[in-house]
Design brief:
Blueprint lengths: L2 H11 L3 H13 L7 H13 L3 H13 L7 H13 L3 H13 L7 H13 L3 H13 L7 H13 L3 H13 L7 H13 L3 H13 L7 H13 L5 H23 L5 H41 L4 H20 L3 H7 L3 E4 L6 H11 L4 E5 L4 E2 L2 E2 L4 H11 L4 H4 L3 E5 L16 H16 L2 E6 L3 E6 L4 E6 L2 H4 L7 H8 L5 H6 L2 E4 L5 H10 L5 H10 L11 H13 L2 H22 L10 H11 L5
Parallel strand pairs: 1-8, 1-9, 2-5, 5-8
Antiparallel strand pairs: 3-4, 6-7
Helix pairs in contact: 1-2, 2-3, 3-4, 4-5, 5-6, 6-7, 7-8, 8-9, 9-10, 10-11, 11-12, 12-13, 13-14, 14-15, 15-16, 16-18, 25-27, 27-28
């Protein structure tokens, strides 16, 4: 007898419920003993009756899948509930699955999400992955690829092969991220190395079609066979596909080993070779695109200090949206796949400047408008939303086709919340109407747009990228909000669910820190320090720009207090320049501005503050 089994049996005799559960597992899976479901169930039941929640969960699994017993969802749910109530995260995850898939109960996505979240918060990686699926597929929640990716990454970091596979798929097809075959392959390989048969199939598909790698039928066939050996649920379909793939491989091998071949075979090989060449060209183009996007990311990250996550998100999603437009054949299909973005950022956060720079890279027209423009208590005056599209056409130099693929920035989105405070809400009824109008455009609508008050043109909104932006100050300034996730979740209050469902990517741009401002001042090409240095040199004064200088630190501290981003920095330096010139002209002292901190120090001594 296996020594481990013998020791477990001794512990079982002494009433050890952990040993009962572990021995049952050995019988269920044939570890050191022959598979014996009846014995496994007997031991699971004994441990469960003694209060072991692991055994309750495992016994429920036997009933759910009919291992040694008839399938009995009601019994499985009863046991999952007992184990979940005792704090077993695996049972919570399994019970959530029952609710999410209607196994023994009516489908209840809300209950499933609640249980997945509880289990995920307890560190269960399966629950994290399953919750990611709910967000990725919009089950019980609005589709949120960013949230799905976040959960997949967390679960993958804990070694969950299903999450690795799902994250790889997001990178392969570009859901919530830019298409990245290299990253997809890396994740598929990790998951396949852990025995995940679905990842083996996905990796095989990458080799079969040359996605991120050279076409390699032999490697693809090997991976498909491994997936079958692992008991992949689609094994029959894989076997049928394998026959076709093996036939192609045989033709290729025969042709390249023999100089003479039949005309029919030669034609088939030539067709395959042409496909291979085309695949290689596409792979090379994609590689070049990735390199260009990385260079753009690095360039903008140096320009916009502290905004790398925002830059990456904008580049990847705008890139993906343009790919969707290229690949899809209908406006309706494009609209379903294009991602719209919500950016939560305080004033001066840099979002509009970053978006404009990204748009230039992709040669896209970009138009920004404030949704708070032209409001009165009586309703809507001045701005007509359709004017945005007319301005976008102008930005595209009259090219309507180009304009229809452009970017619309809808700023101050927070000002049209239906439940906003009285000081923010001009007209609740109007806000509702405005949200409905926005929803129509986001869902795709052909409208008549007036150009130069002389003619009207048809304009299709289906292929536009909409970026919503707002400060949501009533939320971001609250002391009880601790995380970006909390801010994003709370910012969704007061909007039509249908509208939120179309804004499937949410991103919080955190406020600049003191270190961010120091880096902007000393490293960024848009630093207002540069212009001030020119002013100083005009009067033969030197400017110390070390990040450790008291002057730089004092400006950074004031910028944090002002909280207006780079715009606030510019205002600070406008005042500093004024003080500097005032001291030069009206002071009897000979000011040697080797350290401009003297300027701020003098101003404090005179006025007790900056007086910005």
């Amino acid at each position: 007898m296996n020594e481990e089994i013998r020791k477990l049996e001794e512990r079982v005799k002494n009433g050890d419920t952990i040993a009962m559960n572990n021995l049952a597992y050995m019988y269920e899976h044939g570890k050191g003993v022959d598979v014996n479901y009846a014995k496994a169930i007997e031991l699971y039941e004994k441990a469960a009756n003694l209060g072991n929640f692991y055994a309750m969960n495992n016994l429920a699994f036997m009933y759910q899948y009919g291992k040694g017993v008839d399938v009995n969802y009601a019994k499985a749910i009863e046991l999952y509930k007992k184990a979940a109530a005792l704090g077993n995260p695996s049972a919570m995850n399994n019970l959530a699955y029952m609710y999410g898939n209607g196994k023994g109960v009516d489908v209840n996505y809300a209950k499933a999400i609640e249980l997945y979240e509880k289990a995920a918060n307890l560190g269960n990686s399966d629950a994290m992955n399953n919750l990611g699926n709910m967000y990725g597929n919009g089950k019980g929640v609005a589709v949120n690829y960013a949230k799905a990716i976040e959960l997949y990454e967390k679960a993958a970091g804990l070694g969950n092969s299903n999450a690795m596979n799902n994250l790889g798929y997001m990178y392969e097809i570009g859901k919530g991220v830019a298409v990245n075959y290299a990253k997809a392959i890396e994740l598929y390989e990790k998951a396949a190395g852990l025995g995940n048969s679905t990842a083996m199939c996905n990796l095989g598909d990458m080799y079969e079609h040359g996605k991120g790698v050279a076409v390699n039928y032999a490697k693809a066939i090997e991976l498909y066979k491994q997936a079958i050996a692992k008991g992949n649920a689609n094994s029959e379909d894989i076997r049928k596909h394998l026959k076709k793939l093996e036939a192609i491989q045989e033709i290729l091998q025969t042709t390249f080993q023999t100089k003479e071949s039949s005309t029919t075979d030669q034609t088939r090989v030539e067709e395959t070779t042409e496909d291979y060449k085309e695949t290689q060209i596409k792979a090379s183009q994609q590689k070049q695109e990735r390199e260009e996007l990385r260079e753009l990311t690095d360039k903008l990250s140096k320009k916009y200090i502290g905004r790398n996550p925002t830059i990456r998100l904008l580049i990847t999603n705008i890139y993906h949206n343009q790919k969707v437009i290229q690949k899809t054949t209908s406006s309706e299909e494009a609209r379903q796949s294009i991602g719209n973005i919500l950016l939560i950022s305080s004033t001066g956060g840099g979002k509009t400047a970053i978006i404009n720079d990204v748009a230039k890279k992709f040669n896209l027209p970009c138009e920004a408008v404030s949704l708070n423009q032209g409001f009165t208590a009586a309703g809507y005056v001045g701005l007509n939303l359709q004017d945005i599209f007319a301005n976008l056409i102008k930005a595209a130099n009259g090219d309507i086709q180009k304009a229809q693929k452009g970017i619309i920035i809808l700023d101050e989105f927070d000002k049209i919340r239906i439940n906003a405070s009285e000081t923010e809400t001009r007209n609740i009824g109007f806000n509702q109407s405005l949200q409905k109008e926005l929803l129509a455009y986001i869902e795709g609508k052909v409208i008549d747009v007036e150009i130069n008050q002389t003619r009207k043109v048809k304009f299709d909104t289906s292929e536009l990228t909409f970026i919503f932006a707002g400060a949501f100050q009533d939320i971001t300034e609250r002391s009880d909000v601790y995380s970006p996730e909390s801010i994003i979740n709370m910012s969704q209050e007061g909007y039509m669910p249908e509208l939120l469902a179309r804004i499937n990517i949410q991103h919080y741009m955190p406020k600049y820190t003191k270190q961010d401002y120091i880096d902007i001042l000393t490293k960024s090409e848009i630093s207002p320090l540069q212009n001030f240095a020119v002013t100083c040199s005009m009067y033969e004064k030197n400017l110390i720009t070390s990040p450790y200088s008291p002057f730089i630190e004092s400006v950074a501290e004031e910028a944090v207090n002002l909280d207006q981003g780079v715009r606030g920095l510019n205002n600070i330096f406008a005042n500093i320049r004024s003080w500097f010139l005032e001291d030069l002209i009206y002071s009897d002292e000979d000011i040697l501005l080797l350290e401009p901190y003297n300027v701020i120090k003098r101003r404090k001594e005179k006025t007790g503050g900056y007086n910005l």
